[in-house]
Amino acid sequence: MLTDTTFPASFLWGGAVAANQLEGGYDEGGKGLSIQDVMPRGIAAPPTTEPTPDNLKLEGIDFYHRYAEDIALFAELGFKVFRFSVAWSRIFPLGDEETPNEEGLAFYDRVLDELEKHGIEPLITISHYETPLHLARTYDGWTDRRMIGFYERYARTLFERYGDRVKYWLTFNEINSVLHAPLMSGGIWTPKDQLRPADLYQAIHHELVASASATRIAHEINPDIKVGCMVIAMPIYPLTPDPADALKVMQVDHQNLAFSDVHVRGEYPGYFLRELREAGVELDITDADRETLKHTVDFVSFSYYMSLCEAATGGRAGEGNIMGGVQNPTLPASEWGWQIDPVGLRIVLNQFWDRWRKPLFIVENGLGATDVLVEQNGTMTVEDDYRIAYLRDHLVQVREAIEDGVEVWGYTWWGPIDVVSASTAQLSKRYGFIYVDRQDDGSGTLARHKKKSFGFYADVIASNGASLGA
């Protein structure tokens, strides 16, 4: 039984977004095209050759022009931290230039100014599913070793510009998702069904080396900077007590854990090397690569939305989940088929802490749902009790994990304001505490309205979790 209903005094409460899902301004301020500008259907369809008018991400929710208004709302929520990403192609429009775009850098200066004005700590993701389109088309993304140098230049530019203003950094968003979404995650232009395993694993290696190199650069520029990796966390349960199912769980779990193992331990684990051998893949790993990988992260961050099951003989596939897996018959699911498992968050927090003994940061957790805007006492709102229940249930499990002895630095809800979905490119799949008046057909005023969950989360933050109850 918990003796204290509050979280640590230093706990960082906040929310998380990505540039490509909310900024808009895709052709303003000297910005170049990113892969997201030609992915109007998310990961569900092949990319287009050029941006199309029906791509909601081109305008997003117009954060590019409304950032001050939105950050003021985050401050009203009581945010201690705000996680956002820098659009790589806003800083280096093509990605392989020698000189950055000053207009792009100045935009993020203004965003940081607003955060500082409200006392909100920034947490920046350097690369969040928005590889410059030129790098994808010209170099086939991270399959090309030259990408390491391009990324190093980009990361160094950010650290030198903002390193005295931003303490917390993430190198890549959900880096383990490249196994399942090579274009979105790795900027790999070769269609997934034509991509050779050798090229995919080489791309993974290049990203891991680049991530470690960025960690080294950050610590050289400012030793106080804290750099974390960011992965999809997804606890996996055996569908039955059959040992074959348990073995299948271990094998699938290893695919995800390998990325953090390298980030934390500075070398490839034996099980991953065995997987490569059995796949007939021989990586191009230089001695310099091995030395670079030894620059390990300060903390491990992750997204958590669902758990999954595995079975040696297969089973009914889980819906809406890019990581695959088998549907768990004991759990409910969201409208998009993501199974809801609050206890799984406590499990994964304990698993990660026991495995790495590094501070943990939950940088994405949330519920996508179809919200209905209604008028209440002359104010437009959304009665989203389902989101409140999801949030409460997951935060209770975070508190339980902290009581278990897990060191958790913070929690950022995805996303505190409605944004365009990465997986489906819809706006009707809403996550926010703040409703944005924009529909899937592009109509709407872009006006912001507080949902019922806005007040609930504000109370949680103001009470440092005490309002969740015992």
From TrEMBL:
Any matching Pfam family: Glyco_hydro_1
Keyword Membrane: no
Keywords, sorted A to Z: Glycosidase, Hydrolase
InterPro entries: GH (IPR017853), GH_1_N_CS (IPR033132), Glyco_hydro_1 (IPR001360), Glyco_hydro_1_AS (IPR018120)
GO molecular function, one term: beta-glucosidase activity
Active site: E364
GO cellular component assignments: cytosol
A single GO BP: carbohydrate catabolic process
Entry-linked PROSITE patterns: GLYCOSYL_HYDROL_F1_1 (PS00572), GLYCOSYL_HYDROL_F1_2 (PS00653)
Membership in a protein family: Belongs to the glycosyl hydrolase 1 family.
Full protein name: Glycoside hydrolase family 1 protein
Organism of provenance: Propioniciclava coleopterorum
